[in-house]
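Milestone M4 deliverable, item 7.
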Amino acid sequence: MDTAGAVGQEPVAETPGGDIAVHSSLRTRDVDEARAFCRRMYYGPIEVTPTGSLETFAFSGEVVQLGPVTIGEISYGAEICLASGSLETAYHVLAPLTGGVHVRHGGAATTADPSRAAVFRPVGDIDLRWSADCRLISVKVDRLALERELGLILPPGATFGVAGGPGRSWLALIRLLHAEARQADGLSLLPQLLRQWRELAVSGLAQAVEHPYVDGTPARPTARRPRTVKRTLDAMHAEPGRPFTAAELAAIAGVGIRVLQESFRQHVGVPPLTYLRRLRLERVHAELSRAGPDQLSVSEVATRWGFTHLGRFAGAYRERYGVSPSQTLRDGY
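Output delivered:
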């Protein structure tokens, strides 16, 4: 869309397993509209703040949501600061096509530019400074989808090269997938192939971050995720609405409750049940964002994803996303 302030959302294809490919776009000079769009497409607790004159501010976002993968091409037209807490249930990649982004993640500082992409793990606060000429590919990947492929734990401030090696191939694939998924006569006509491309994008990212070839030198993270944590994450992502108890999760992991809680604090950042609650909130937010008030109710969605006390659910939702669930259902963010 070329009209300032206009936003479009169009279902493109439905893939096996209930995944729906949705194309959304926005071009606007309104900072609040841009912030709301990014929250709806990516994360609720995200702050976007211009640091200079608003005269050049001109947000452009073309985003495709493909189940566990969200791909967008984003620009602001002005220097901005962006801040977010821990992503918790997702990994994120920023790959500038022009300009650059100064990154601070979990206490580590780095820079992303057209030769190097920045990778954000689920744990650690994020602070970004975008240059005014920055236009980038922004990719969100469901935590479990990537961790099924990725056998290593990324350090804060991780990057990988996109000028050569696996990183270049991955970015080319992502850009092609982003373009084709937006075309009515492209991959949208072949949902099975669309799903295969999406899975290739996830496995390709795992290869890119495990073999980063930064400055021509291969570098690999060394810390490994305990199998106990992985088994527990697998179970929660497979059935987010199941009424797990701490004892049940510990039994799945094959360890005691205290051992599992300590492992989660070390490798995930929060205890297991806290992670499960946030995973459920993300699923509710995604479903409410894509539906209309005439299609379903907040209580219906909340109950389906395992929330039995609607008052506590509404409070937790507002705390995380800054709006009520009913407002998300009504306004789409």
